[in-house]
Amino acid sequence: MTAIACRAGIAMLAASMTSACVSVAPAYPVSITNATAAHALGAPIKVGAFVPAPGKEADLKGLRARAQVYASPTNDSYAEYIAVAVRSDLAAAGKVDDASPRVLTGSLEANDVSAGSLVTNTATVVVRFKLADGQRTRYDRTLTATDEWESSALGAIAIPRAIQRYVTTVQKLVGMLFADPDFIAATRP
Fold first, then answer.
1. 3-class DSSP state for residue 41?
2. Neighbours of 31 (CB within 10 A)
3. Stretch (H or E) spanning 108
4. Is-contact 48 103, C-beta < 8 A?
5. pLDDT at 139
6. Among the CATH numbers 3.30.160, 3.30.200, 1.20.1250, 3.90.1750, which is that of 20-186?
7. For the CA atoms of 49, 29, 32, 38, what is the dihedral angle to 10 degrees?
8. pLDDT score recorded for residue 18
9. Residue ranges per domain, the chain?
10. Which residues contact 23 (CB under 8 A, 6 or more apart)?
11. Is the CB of residue 21 less than 8 Å from the CB of residue 63?
């Protein structure tokens, strides 16, 4: 093998090792636990816009689990993924009304999943939720959900587990919102 061919082979190998594969994250599955908790809410609400926090759009676009990058299945936006999660669980409880004057919005502040450790990995989702009734803010709180799980040295185990646990973390976040006594009170007339 010539020196040029050898260098070209090394360059191609290095490029293939640093490039990430892109997949689409799984769709949000309705959480029966969250839907049950949503029954305690007052009047049905409208789910409005969920957006990335200002200046963080690029940081919140994809999730990286080792060399695997996961794009959101919802308009390539994890902020919208959270909106779908909230809406799905509310709808399962009959608590969505697109004509409601009470509108829930959100700002995705942090969104991360870790799969690099061989021992334990984590996921974190931070959202600032606001429930407004016209110009009146009824609820404004930032909630943080985290999850930790046992990892594996094998990427074929660690990577799918990480993205599944991310979904679990989103379910935890929505559950925290529905269980917050201040949010429950804000949904009541």
1. coil
2. 22
3. strand 102-113
4. yes
5. 98
6. 3.30.160
7. 0
8. 40
9. 20-186
10. 68, 69, 70, 71
11. no
